[in-house]
Every structure is written in structure tokens, then in C-alpha cells.
Specification:
The protein has about 130 residues and is of the alpha+beta class. About 30% of the residues lie in helices and about 25% in strands. It has one domain. It is globular and about 50 Å long.
Length: about 130
């Protein structure tokens, strides 16, 4: 499924398939890892990644929360921009994850995840 526009939080709330397939523990860097790695002569195959990943982008002056769709064929696209999240939560997540930055993208932290779960009606971790 390809999207012609960036979705909003309200639009994401109406998409149970997206909500059910959010990969809460994945970080932006995980998506960029090579599919195959050779280590000490042994080829290791990365586990397939398919689902949706939240990340914080700091390319602009104001940090922004996005939702990315990632397919089993390693195609990725930005699906949604979440404007409603409090800026102080994003700034705290960036500070907490400063060593996990990857091309101006940061993973969310527990507080941002809790806020998102509440907004999306996903109150328990699966």
C-alpha cells in the first residue's frame, strides 16, 4: 500500500492494521543494517523487518515525530507526521538517546512510547 500524503495521528488511529504492526522496540539504525553480514567467515542473515517504526527527526530546528513503514523487501517510506506530541517529550528522548542518533534520526524512549500508546489506545505492551 502506497500513500500519496503524509498521514496524521487521527488518521493513524483509524487504521488498526498499522497500530497492530508497530515495532515498538526497533530503532532507526536497525532498519539500515545490511541484510547479510560476514563475521569470522560465517554469513549471518538479518531477521526480516516488516512493520511500522516511530522515530524522531532532527533535520529541522524543531524535532518532529514520524512513523515509517518498512516492508520485508527493505522498502521504507515515511507514513505519518505526529504533530500532537509534546516537544518536551521529544527533547527528552533525544537527550536520552543521544548516542543512538543515525542520520539525524533518534529512537523514541519510554515516555514517548507511553504517550503514543495512550493516544492510539494501545495501553499494554505486547
Amino acid at each position: 500500500m502506497m500513500y500519496d500524503e503524509i498521514l496524521s495521528l487521527d488518521q493513524i488511529k483509524k487504521e488498526p492494521f498499522i497500530i497492530e504492526n508497530i515495532l515498538w522496540n526497533l530503532q532507526p539504525k536497525d532498519l539500515m543494517e545490511p541484510r547479510l553480514k560476514v563475521d569470522a567467515g560465517v554469513t549471518k542473515v538479518r531477521e526480516q523487518i516488516k512493520g511500522y517504526v516511530f522515530y524522531i527527526d532532527t533535520t529541522d530546528k524543531k524535532p518532529t515525530l514520524y512513523l515509517m513503514r518498512h516492508t520485508a523487501m527493505d522498502f521504507a517510506e515515511t507514513l505519518a507526521k505526529i504533530d500532537e506530541v509534546p516537544q518536551e517529550l521529544l527533547l527528552e528522548a533525544i537527550a536520552e538517546n543521544k548516542d543512538k542518533a543515525y542520520f539525524n534520526m533518534y529512537p523514541i524512549n519510554g515516555k514517548v512510547e507511553s504517550w503514543l500508546r495512550k493516544e492510539l489506545g494501545v495501553l499494554t505492551k505486547t
